[in-house]
Amino acid sequence: MNTRSGSLEKELLELENQYWRAMQNGDSKTATRLSADPCIVTGAQGVGQVDRKTMGKLLDSAKWKLDRFTLLDPVVRALTDDVAVIAYKVHEELTVDGKVVTFDAADSSTWVRLDGQWVCAVHTEAIAGDPFGRDRMT
Questions:
Q1: Per residue in 107-118, pLDDT tens?
Q2: Are 34 and 112 in contact (CB under 8 A)?
Q3: What residue segments make up the domains of the chain, in order of their start?
Q4: I need a labelling partner for 91 at 20 to 30 A (CA). Which of 82, 99, 108, 129 fits?
Q5: Rg (CA), the chain
Q6: How far is 23 from 120, CA to CA, in rounded Å?
Q7: What whole-number distance in Å separates Cα of residue 62 and Cα of residue 65?
Q8: Residues 8, 11, 17, 23: what is their CA dihedral angle, to the nearest 10 degrees?
Q9: Does residue 137 carry a pLDDT above 80?
């Protein structure tokens, strides 16, 4: 790994951790500062676009609490000088509706540099498991 790519990997991993800590701490100011306007989000609930104002409101009124998270095996790829992608495994421990929920997922974020600042333009999360969902059938 050259110095430039090592530096980018370190920078994006720190930004991703800042984002997760903002979610954990209910820090809507940091979460909105790190979000593109709007940010595209995909996951088990589908695809959506969240503008900064809505992001702040969602975090301020969250009915869940991110208790712990661990980012594992990050992979970073620069697409241009101002666009980069980070992907990783994540272990999450949350409290949802008063109950502890723990799961593993694969996440990725696309970061773009706008006016000298990195912001997350796209974030995806896929809960780990059988790709056909057989491990979640009842």
A1: 999 999 999 999
A2: no
A3: 3-129
A4: 82
A5: 15
A6: 14
A7: 7
A8: -110
A9: no
Nearest to 123 by CA among 79, 75, 86: 86
For residue 49, give the 3-state DSSP assignment. strand
> Distance between CA 9 and CA 88 in Å, rounded?
12
Average pLDDT over residues 117-130: 96
Token digits of residue 115: 């006016």
Three-state SS sequence of 89-132: EEEEEEEECCEEEEEEEEEEEEEEEECCEEEEEEEEEEECCCCC
The CATH classification number of 3-129 equals 3.10.450.50
Counted residue by residue, the chain has a size of 138
pLDDT in tens, 14-37: 999 999 999 999 999 999 999 999
pLDDT tens, 33-80? 999 999 999 998 899 999 999 988 888 888 899 999 999 999 999 999
